[in-house]
Design goal:
Elements lengths: L7 H4 L4 E2 L1 E2 L11 E6 L3 E9 L19 E7 L7 E6 L5 E8 L2 E2 L11 E7 L10 E9 L16 E10 L5 E4 L15 E4 L7
Antiparallel strand pairs: 1-3, 2-12, 3-4, 4-10, 5-6, 5-11, 6-7, 7-8, 9-10, 11-12, 11-13
Length: about 200
């Protein structure tokens, strides 16, 4: 994990685009995400064009969503109410949460994924001033932490519920999603998208 998206595996991964979460309308920000997996990890990559990148929080499990961040929400078994939430900001700060139900997390600082990996790269500065280009992020979520999943590691044909988000704050606040929830709230598992595992895995 270095935060760069130049690995050969990413070049062959499908691109997930983002729209406005509130109504599904197109976004001009050009945010992209990609996903891959192997037996150990579920991998995520984000590319966030941004002319004025901004974040201040540096402590793990801070309330990152109040600034600028990318987010992963994963519900590996839709028959259960629990799901995992991951957030990373442009400073490389992580928030990882295991929720037992909608907005009912295990206390933030009592659940940390020990083998979770992540990194960011910033083309610019993280001060909210104009002149930046983009920031990118890689996350590797250990399969062993996705305990509600019917199978870990995932098997070809498994279907999990997932959503990907981006919060932009400067110059204006925007809430973006891969699968829009159609409301001012990301915690709507019924509106998450679905990922289907294939037999093509990351090298």
């Amino acid at each position: 994990m270095d935060g760069k998206l130049d690995d050969a595996a990413w070049a062959g991964a499908a691109i997930a685009g983002f729209v406005h979460n509130l109504d599904g309308s197109p976004s001009n920000l050009g945010t992209e995400a990609r996903m891959l997996y192997d037996e150990q990890f579920l991998y995520f990559a984000f590319r966030c064009p941004d002319q004025n990148i901004w974040a201040t929080m540096k402590q793990r499990d801070d309330h990152l969503w109040t600034e600028e961040v990318v987010e992963v929400f994963l519900q590996a078994d839709p028959t259960q109410k629990s799901y995992i939430e991951l957030e990373v900001n442009p400073l490389g700060t992580m928030l990882d949460i295991f929720l037992l139900d909608i907005r009912k997390p295990i206390p933030y600082r009592s659940w940390n994924s020990e083998k979770l990996k992540w990194a960011v790269q910033v083309d610019g500065t993280v001060d909210g001033r104009a002149g930046d280009k983009e920031w990118t992020c890689e996350i590797a979520l250990p399969m062993e932490d996705i305990v509600p999943a019917p199978h870990t590691p995932a098997r070809p044909g498994d279907r999990w519920r997932l959503n990907l988000y981006r919060v932009e704050n400067r110059p204006a606040r925007e809430l973006l999603a891969w699968s829009p929830t159609m409301r001012g709230d990301f915690h709507v598992p019924a509106m998450f998208g679905e990922i289907v595992f294939t037999d093509k895995v990351a090298p």
